[in-house]
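Figure-free illustration: sequence to structure, shown twice.
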Amino acid sequence: MHYAGEICALITAVLWTGSAMTFSAATKRVGSIYVNVARLVAAAVMLLAVVVFIGGWSSVSGTQFVFLIFSGFVGFVFGDTFLFKSFEHLSVRISMLVMALAPAFTALFAYYFLNETLTLLGIGGIAVTLAGIALVVLEQKEDLPHVRPVSFAGLFYAVLGAAGQAGGLILARKAFALGDINGFLATFIRVIASTVVILPMNYFAGKFSHPIEIFNRDRRALVLMIMGAFFGPFFGVTFSLISISLTKVAVAATLMATTPIFILPLAHFFFHEKLTWRAVTGAFIAVAGIAILFLR
């Protein structure tokens, strides 16, 4: 199917909109460590059920396993840990703005490690899309009580999160370049490898010592975490891997970064944020950039 990779990237952005909203809300209730670790465990259980049904283990080579394992370490353990830390210091919109740097990191890494190059039209499409995203999420909302001040530490954590996400995509793309892999199976390998590292690391450090007690005390946080795991590491990450296997990784990363555009209507209906002309204009600019990427 023509543009299948680009369409999967946009589906990823929609799914990540749901995960960003739910994870941000859960993080503010029980902290980033509990949400980050628990959502990987929840996603691993969901993915295991699918993988047992579809099988396909014999189709994955040892080299592909290695790339996917390290992709999980870089993307989930390093990148997402810092993204969740940024949620503690920044609003979800500002965090996602900085995360929009991920396509720039991805394009740079893809050039050096995958020898992927973009046409001038492709570069222009990425630039226009990111400009629209920036216009949307830089909208100031000082009059709203739920908006948090910008923190330098939060910005730094979000930049590290963007770099980690880009690195994880590049390593996953290396695995897909060696042969076809089912998206759910690839995601399961990444998630289970990350869980094996991040769960004991936080448990023995005393940062994830009473998860059952914590989530039993705050059932709403548990529900939000499970919903985020479904939208994010279960479906969202799977679609992101399918996307990078079908199109240039920098283009896919740019389309995935349109999450803030999809957050706009949710922020309007659930947080009663007014949609200003600046935000709407930014959304239209981002859509124009997406159109350029489809027509490149």
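We now fold a second protein in the same way, so the two outputs can be compared directly.
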Amino acid sequence: MRNSTRNRIGKNTVALLAGRISVLALGLWLNGQLARTVGIEGLGRYLLALTVEGIALAVVNMGLNVFATREFARSDAEVTRTLLGAVLVLKTAAAIFAIVLLNGLIAPLLFPGPRSLAIAWASFGLLPQAMNGGLEAVLKGRQRMEMSSVIDLTARLVAVVGGLIWLEHGGDERHVLACYVAGQLLATLALSGVVTAWGVAPRWRGWHSRVGAIVRNAIPFAGVDVVAMLYRRTDLLLLAAWHGDAAIGLYGAAYRLWEVLGLMPSSFLDALFPELARRDAEGDGRARLRRLYRRVLPALLAFVLAVATVSFIIAPQIITLLYGQIPGREVVVGLFRLLLPALPFTYLYLLNGHMLYATDNQRRVLAAMVTVTLGNALLNALLIPRWSYWSAAGIALASEIALLGLLGTTARRHILKPTPLETRII
């Protein structure tokens, strides 16, 4: 890669990584304060509400965030404006429908009582988050990830500070969720201001002419988004059904920390994605992608092994720092340590998945995700009733291994296998 490309990707990686780690660090801090203030049960209801809202958001997004990022990276300002208008209309309609469905049917029926109230508060974050995903795609497509990171971090900081103040004055998880929604609204205003200043404000006329093509192309991404969210959250939903809010809180405390460690490679790969999409459209794009893969793989593997090893050693100190001496602290440490061996598999399947995305192989990613998610859900349904969060953590580890196996095999077959000419050169 040329120096300018390296510098751009490096800058965007640092921006995304710093922003995401900061956002999740704020979230972990807030989780710790919730556990101390309203107990592990209150933390469980909070995490359940965000889980249900996250699954709904994956449906609402309809795969449009990744699709739009790829198209914005290839398009001029005029095309971007029309496409953005269509994306925002589609996502707004889907978000409103989801809010009505969650509050009118799903939450009261499946999660009655205090859980339903928490989910109701979280659901109102669907509309601003849907808008934010489309607006952020413009910034990502133009490889200005530092701006989206700053906006996201600022909004989350406002939400966390508001939540902490409310907890200090007798609030509970519902008030923290209200601050979460307010932070998302703040981000919507900021992102709207940025795209307007750039001259790419959404064009509302003519958007309907693009809807059919947009939906057809975004469907595979939508499938991956929904399946990926179910893949990450089915265990928590089943824990809620079988073992109550305390079990959700204990497992969620360990799982969220493990997810933070998984953000490091995704930030680099998300920063690299627009460049990969552009390169693939060029004449020798596949050969460049193969050379890049061979350079990135050893460094990524060495990095993740170091992260997992250090985290395993200091796990008790990390859990105590975040959550204090909560009941079940030893359980959280054990769950976190059980999840850590999955990290190398997570890092490597993300690398293969991004390569497949960039080369228009998203349907193959979807097929792999569906296969592993079905197995994950079946095993969790069979084992969680008896072994609770311990089986959930073990199944998460097995699922990461299986997903790497499928995506790695697919990437080798369709992208990474050298041509006869490359083989002779090597």
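Summary for the second example: Residues 420-426 have pLDDT under 50 and may be disordered.
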